[in-house]
Recover the amino acids of this structure.
Protein backbone atom coordinates (compact mmCIF):
# COMPACT_ATOMS: atom_id res chain seq x y z
CA UNK A 1 0.00 0.00 0.00
CA UNK A 2 2.79 2.44 0.83
CA UNK A 3 4.48 1.78 -2.52
CA UNK A 4 1.30 2.58 -4.47
CA UNK A 5 0.76 5.79 -2.50
CA UNK A 6 4.35 6.90 -3.06
CA UNK A 7 4.13 6.27 -6.80
CA UNK A 8 0.86 8.21 -6.91
CA UNK A 9 2.46 11.17 -5.11
CA UNK A 10 5.47 11.14 -7.43
CA UNK A 11 3.24 11.12 -10.51
CA UNK A 12 1.11 13.93 -9.13
CA UNK A 13 4.16 15.99 -8.27
CA UNK A 14 5.74 15.58 -11.67
CA UNK A 15 2.60 16.64 -13.55
CA UNK A 16 2.09 19.66 -11.29
CA UNK A 17 5.31 21.37 -12.38
CA UNK A 18 4.67 24.15 -14.87
CA UNK A 19 6.72 24.08 -18.05
CA UNK A 20 8.11 27.28 -19.53
CA UNK A 21 5.43 28.98 -21.65
CA UNK A 22 5.79 29.41 -25.39
CA UNK A 23 4.99 33.07 -26.08
CA UNK A 24 4.65 34.61 -29.55
CA UNK A 25 3.99 38.27 -30.26
CA UNK A 26 2.86 38.83 -33.85
CA UNK A 27 1.91 41.86 -35.95
CA UNK A 28 0.56 41.14 -39.40
CA UNK A 29 -1.50 42.71 -42.12
CA UNK A 30 -1.17 44.83 -45.22
CA UNK A 31 -0.37 48.07 -43.40
CA UNK A 32 2.67 49.82 -42.01
CA UNK A 33 3.47 51.64 -38.77
CA UNK A 34 5.70 54.61 -38.02
CA UNK A 35 6.69 53.24 -34.62
CA UNK A 36 6.46 49.89 -32.82
CA UNK A 37 7.20 49.57 -29.10
CA UNK A 38 7.32 46.12 -27.53
CA UNK A 39 8.17 44.54 -24.20
CA UNK A 40 8.46 40.80 -23.68
CA UNK A 41 9.70 38.93 -20.62
CA UNK A 42 13.47 38.58 -20.55
CA UNK A 43 14.17 41.61 -22.77
CA UNK A 44 14.33 45.36 -22.32
CA UNK A 45 11.52 47.39 -23.89
CA UNK A 46 12.45 48.28 -27.48
CA UNK A 47 11.28 50.90 -29.95
CA UNK A 48 11.50 50.35 -33.71
CA UNK A 49 10.95 53.10 -36.28
CA UNK A 50 9.26 52.07 -39.56
CA UNK A 51 9.45 48.35 -38.67
CA UNK A 52 9.26 45.65 -41.32
CA UNK A 53 6.00 43.72 -41.41
CA UNK A 54 5.13 41.04 -40.52
CA UNK A 55 6.78 41.35 -37.10
CA UNK A 56 7.27 38.48 -34.65
CA UNK A 57 9.13 37.91 -31.38
CA UNK A 58 9.20 34.89 -29.08
CA UNK A 59 9.88 34.28 -25.39
CA UNK A 60 9.82 31.42 -22.89
CA UNK A 61 9.47 33.54 -19.72
CA UNK A 62 6.41 34.61 -17.76
CA UNK A 63 5.72 38.28 -17.14
CA UNK A 64 4.18 41.28 -18.89
CA UNK A 65 3.85 41.24 -22.67
CA UNK A 66 2.99 44.46 -24.49
CA UNK A 67 3.08 45.81 -28.01
CA UNK A 68 2.02 49.25 -29.26
CA UNK A 69 1.99 50.56 -32.80
CA UNK A 70 1.68 54.25 -33.61
CA UNK A 71 1.15 55.93 -36.95
CA UNK A 72 -0.65 52.93 -38.42
CA UNK A 73 -1.33 53.20 -42.16
CA UNK A 74 -3.57 50.50 -43.61
CA UNK A 75 -4.70 47.44 -41.67
CA UNK A 76 -2.55 45.79 -38.98
CA UNK A 77 -3.41 43.18 -36.34
CA UNK A 78 -1.38 42.45 -33.22
CA UNK A 79 -1.67 39.08 -31.48
CA UNK A 80 -0.32 37.53 -28.30
CA UNK A 81 -0.22 33.74 -28.49
CA UNK A 82 0.68 31.63 -25.44
CA UNK A 83 1.16 27.87 -25.78
CA UNK A 84 -0.61 27.95 -29.14
CA UNK A 85 -3.67 29.80 -27.79
CA UNK A 86 -4.39 33.38 -28.82
CA UNK A 87 -4.99 35.39 -25.63
CA UNK A 88 -5.13 38.90 -27.12
CA UNK A 89 -5.82 40.36 -30.53
CA UNK A 90 -6.51 43.86 -31.80
CA UNK A 91 -6.87 45.32 -35.30
CA UNK A 92 -6.55 48.87 -36.57
CA UNK A 93 -7.53 50.10 -39.99
CA UNK A 94 -8.34 53.67 -39.02
CA UNK A 95 -4.86 55.03 -38.39
CA UNK A 96 -5.40 54.87 -34.63
CA UNK A 97 -2.75 53.50 -32.29
CA UNK A 98 -2.88 49.75 -31.83
CA UNK A 99 -2.16 48.01 -28.52
CA UNK A 100 -2.05 44.42 -27.26
CA UNK A 101 -0.99 43.50 -23.73
CA UNK A 102 -1.17 40.56 -21.36
CA UNK A 103 0.35 39.72 -17.99
CA UNK A 104 1.36 36.28 -16.77
CA UNK A 105 2.06 35.63 -13.09
CA UNK A 106 5.75 35.04 -12.52
Amino acid sequence: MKTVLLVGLLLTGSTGCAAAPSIRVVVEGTGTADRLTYAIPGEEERVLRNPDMPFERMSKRKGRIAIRLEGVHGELTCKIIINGRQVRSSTSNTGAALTCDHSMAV
About this structure: The radius of gyration is 19 Å.
